[in-house]
């Protein structure tokens, strides 16, 4: 059972380049999330999706776009990468919303450096 | 704005000692979740507390939710090197995370 799989695991970009991070889950979860984790800041929600074809902004959405064309996949795009987007990005999924008793299942992260 | 404050930020103890980490907020939460994150991996859920005053035990880990549902604590008894990691609390409608407490247990 793979759970939540993120690709790639590492990436180095130059300022202004674009890229897409892929998240795939095999648990048939409705909700999916993208976070970034920076030292001393904890995890901050970028965008999330409550179902196929839907997306919503989180706490820090600027500079990112997302798409949920298939239930099992959630893509995070950086159109024009900036050094401030250097971070570790985590994808998560849950059966329902993160509140209450529904746990979030996380991938192992993508380490992204923008030069 | 970070709704959840965790303390201390870092904690280093000897194997066999006890430790407590805290998660505090000025807001009331319907529930709080605790996660542990090891280097190079994503967070893994430890427990969810949902009732004010609730105490949950997971082997040597004891979690408590404050009576007013604004704070929570995690107590580890007789810590082991395997308890080393980043402990995160989370709550709220968009599951806001605290910055975490980095725990190091020395053998």
CATH class of chain A: Mainly Beta
Give the count of helical stretches of chain A: 0
Counting DSSP E segments of at least 2 residues, the number of strands of chain A comes to 11
Distance between the termini of chain B: 37 Å
**Which two chains share the most extensive interface?**
A-B, 26 and 26 residues
Separation of the first and last Cα atoms of chain A: 36 Å
Give the helix proportion of chain A (percent range): under 10%
State the CATH architecture of chain A. Sandwich
The CATH architecture term of chain B is Sandwich
| Overall 3D shape of chain B | globular
Number of discrete domains of chain B: 1
Spans where pLDDT lies below 50 across 5 or more residues of chain A? none
Mean pLDDT across all residues of chain B, rounded? 93
Rg of chain A (C-alpha, Å): 13 Å
Tally of DSSP β-strands of chain B = 11
**SSE order of chain B, one letter for each helix or strand:** EEEEEEEEEEE
- By CATH, the topology of chain B is Immunoglobulin-like
How many domains make up the coordinates of chain A?
Answer: 1
Q: What structural category characterises the helix and strand content of chain B?
A: mainly beta
Give the averaged pLDDT of chain A, no decimals. 92
- Unreliably modeled segments of chain B: none
Features of this protein?
heterodimer; A: 115 residues; mainly beta; Immunoglobulin-like; 7-stranded mixed beta sheet; 4-stranded antiparallel beta sheet; 0% helix; 50% strand; globular; B: 107 residues; 5-stranded antiparallel beta sheet; 11 strands
Describe the structure.
The complex is a heterodimer of chains A (115) and B (107). By secondary structure, chain A is an all-beta fold. Chain A has a single domain (4-107), classed as Immunoglobulins (Immunoglobulin-like), CATH 2.60.40. In chain A, 0% of the residues lie in helices and 50% in strands. Chain A contains no helices and 11 strands. Chain A has strands at residues 4-7, 10-13, 19-25, 31-38, 42-49, 56-57, 64-67, 73-78, 87-94, 105-106, 110-114. In chain A, the strands form 2 sheets. In chain A, strands 2, 4, 5, 6, 9, 10 and 11 form a 7-stranded mixed beta sheet that branches. In chain A, strand 4 and strand 5 form a beta hairpin. Chain A is globular. Chain A starts with a strand and ends with a strand. Chain B has 107 residues and is mainly β. Chain B has a single domain, classed as Immunoglobulin-like, CATH 2.60.40. Chain B has strands spanning 5-7, 10-14, 19-24, 32-37, 44-49, 55-58, 61-65, 71-76, 85-91, 96-97, 101-106. In chain B, the strands form 2 sheets. In chain B, strands 2, 4, 5, 9, 10 and 11 form a 6-stranded mixed beta sheet that branches. Chain B has a 5-stranded antiparallel beta sheet with strand order 1-3-8-7-6, with no helix packed on it. Chain B starts with a strand and ends with a strand. The mean pLDDT of chain B is 93. The interface between A and B is medium-sized, with 26 and 26 residues.
